[in-house]
Amino acid sequence: MSDEPTTPEPATPAPTSVDSTRDDRDHGSRAGTTEGTATHLTDIIGREEPFENRPRASVVHEDESAKIVAFEFGEGHELGDHAAHHPVLVQVLRGRVEFGLPDRTVVLVPGEVLHLTPRLRHSVRALEPTTLTVTMLLSRA
What pTM does this model have? Predict the structure, then answer.
């Protein structure tokens, strides 16, 4: 035994069992990865002119997990009753639309997001010139 003072070793926390889905939701300096991509999308508003009598769509981004489509509507333009195979997020960037759902009609304005489950029937009518995006959430299978 030595007479020199010793520095105690820091206590090592006991390993814990954590659900792996919880790890994916952790936020902070230890969460996530430094590998991957970030796609910065610009110039979405006005990237296309609407057709004379109907909206025009353009693909803004597409990869294995999501597809983002921008729609340009003139006032009064409509997309009749339809459905998407995937869950979608609808976001109005400018303007206003009436969004017809099976049980109600919602007026969407900038700053709002509408989530639709797969195959939910809906329609859209622009109340003024409008740009909106539809983000299709694709399965990772």
Answer: 0.76
